[in-house]
Amino acid sequence: MLVEKAKLFACQLKGVAQVLLKKLKKKRVVDEGPIDWEKFKVVFLDRFFPVEMREANIFEFINLRQGDMSVNEYALKFMQLSKYYLTMVVNPRARMSKFVLGASDLLVNVTP
């Protein structure tokens, strides 16, 4: 059931992306050249994932602590939120440091 929902969502999103791309092509000036991935991504994110929402996810990531989450729950939440904080995505060392910083003191002290 979950796989079917994911496939349906992907198809719907693909349709939305195609409509948005057609609109962009209509609006663009001939001298601007083709629409590249970066231009499309910016327009798509602004339309469907507003800056305020992205900033809220970055804030949540910066303040993420393991607390009473299991290690797996914390790792999953960390991975989900880290994609919004681009410095972490690009720099593996910074990513590791942030993960350890937010991990429970018990986990950090037990790990050799």
Brief synopsis:
With 112 residues, the protein is mainly alpha-helical. 75% of the residues lie in helices and 0% in strands.
Instruction: Provide the β-strand percentage band.
Output: under 5%
Mean pLDDT: 77
What gyration radius follows from the Cα positions, in whole Å? 19 Å
Number of helices, where a helix is a run of at least 4 consecutive DSSP H or I residues: 7
- Tell me about the largest β-sheet: none
What is the helix fraction of residues, given as a range?
A: over 70%
Q: Could you tell me the number of beta strands? A: 0
Quaternary state, please?
single chain
What general outline do the C-alpha atoms trace?
A: elongated
**Low-confidence sequence ranges:** none
Distance between the termini: 41 Å
**Succession of helices and strands:** HHHHHHH
Specify the structural class: mainly alpha
What does this structure look like?
The protein is mostly helical. The chain contains 7 helices and no strands. It is elongated. The model has no long low-confidence stretch (mean pLDDT 77).
